[in-house]
Design brief:
Layout: E1 2-13, E2 16-27, E3 31-35, H1 42-50, E4 57-62, E5 65-66, E6 77-80, H2 92-102, H3 107-120, H4 136-148, E7 154-158, H5 166-183, E8 186-191, H6 194-200, E9 203-208, E10 211-216, H7 218-223, H8 228-233, E11 238-245, E12 248-250, E13 263-269, E14 274-278, E15 285-291, E16 296-301, E17 307-312, E18 324-328, E19 331-335, E20 338-343
Helix pairs in contact: 2-3, 2-4, 3-4
Bound molecules: adenosine-5'-diphosphate and magnesium ion (MG).
Amino acid sequence: MSQLTLKNLGKSFDETDVIHDVSLDVADGELVCLLGPSGSGKSTILRMVGGFEPPDRGSIIIGDHDVTHVPPERRPTGMVFQSHALWSHMSVAENIAFGLKLRRLSRADIREKVTNVLKLVGLDGYGARRVWQLSGGQQQRVAIARALVLEPKILLLDEPFASLDQHLRERLREELRDIQRRLGITTLFVTHGQDEALSLADRIVVLKSGKIEQVASPDRMYRDPQTRFVAGFIGSMNFIACDIRNGYADHPLFPIAVPVSDGPVELAIRPEALSIRPDTNSPARIHRTTDYGTHILVDITMPDGVRLKAMCPPSSAYKAGQPVALSADNVAIFRGEEKLATITPVASRSLTHA
Ligand SMILES: Nc1ncnc2c1ncn2[C@@H]1O[C@H](COP(=O)(O)OP(=O)(O)O)[C@@H](O)[C@H]1O
Ligand SMILES: [Mg+2]
């Protein structure tokens, strides 16, 4: 059953449409990431779900209740913001208890719930600390505890780890995922970081200029991007512009059969799908190699100056200046934003230049 449904949501600020016709179903217990560049409308959507921003068009349904016009405090949602907005003059326990007091729970109930939620977020025994005595990561854990203690049906997080350093961010991400699984809580997580979305989400919603580009699992989003934007936004991608003539790509290094109509296209190839081999006749040359331990990333300069990246095994011994032939085992064909075809596998033919 779907726990959260957005139906044709729309929002304008100052007569500019910032959210266009966003529809989405989130299943019970699912973690969905809203992913997009800055200004794409992620926070606005989240704020509409939380009740902090009224939509101009469309509706929001939680369970079987239409909450479109319900104020935030009466929605079964809990929100965690990027800047955690904790009350710095209160203790950790007081911060977490605040919402429970508003709900007039007994002191014993409040104490029990606060103790339990502190355990859940890994802050057992921190109740008496002042907020300013905590590290950034601990403060974000308190913010999450404060949302969770009210037992919302839906947890909303707006870039909660954006201000933390990378190691801490990765750790908190894993912890959040564990907590979310354990509680089975339906979650909308906003991020502009593709790594975060790929590692956290059951499904990712990619947004661009207030519109949904694609909704898919991390795996599908990476392997089968449906638009040029998604192909370039998620992961690393080589784009090679060329023309199609009589069913073939008019490109010296990728003269491959492409079953689309004639006209300009871009060939999109992931670095791990691009293979290289030494070939003294090739006009493509290695520009640089970078050893990442797990793999070697080889930058290649094409005759027209375009740079490509190929991911090679850690043992490979390529050198700058070396000419290499290329082949790809998975090529997506885009014309403008539209994906026309995926070709797999593709062995580029040997070079035809003189
Ligand atoms: N209160 C507001 N008044 C006017 N414009 C706003 C307001 N909130 C957001 N916007 C605009 O709406 C667009 C989407 O913003 P936002 O949802 O914050 O994007 P994101 O969270 O993806 O960075 C942006 O162009 C932003 O400038
Ligand atoms: Mg935002």
